[in-house]
Amino acid sequence: MNSAYEVIIRPIVSERAYDLMSEGKYTFEVAKSAGKEEIAAAVAKLFNVHVTKVNTLSVKPKSKRLRYQQKGKTRSWKKAIVTLAEGEQIAAVFELEESLKDGAKECVAALKNAGMRVAMLTGDNEYAAKRVAEGLGIEGTVANALPTDKAAYVERVAQQGRNVLMIGDGINDAAALALSSVAVCMGSGAAVSIAKSDVVLMRDDPASLAAAVALARKTYCIVRQNLAFSLVYNAVTIPLAMAGYVAPAVAALSMSLSSVAVVLNAMRARSER
User: Model pTM greater than 0.70?
Assistant: First the structure.
């Protein structure tokens, strides 16, 4: 059986819901699998009231317009209207919401534009996770995730032959960070997570993650260019030098020039940031 906090996801705060409160009726979003008796018991436990009736309704997805003229749909959810015993009331209901960090949505968009698949693993409940994921533009979400669940997810994706970049900052992220291909931790993260990470972002700014990924890819591209240049250069000049077609002084000078060319090409990674 689910706990009361898993059954009652959030109160519905709307004009219609406020009107119903005057009749002793309160509206909640509830777990899709919850039955009426389970909902009544959860409300009674959370608010110390007596419930006389529960009506439920499945809310279907609706079409909505997203940014950049993309079409999408709202999520489906289950609504419960709970009637309390005469004379009883719930003093107050609140809906708390976490605010997104500045630059987080742009960071996710940059990662997706770079061809990366983005997923969010969180210990929060399903409603809170989906709410944040929708705000960030993330499709894949795993809610109510324990540290072992996060580690299992990373391991499962890695077994599919994919490289996994894991970003975390808490103690509960350490196991998943250890199993990822590349582990990234924010500088303000827990010591154990920093110890398990390959990269530590010193600025607590999501934009720095996108910048780090772009820089890593640029560096990898430059390394491949330098290796290709060195292989071609050696394949051409060494046989010519051995055959005596290139004077020793010219060979020494060209070797130095090739080294300079490789260094200058490598410096592009810094100049193009």
Answer: no
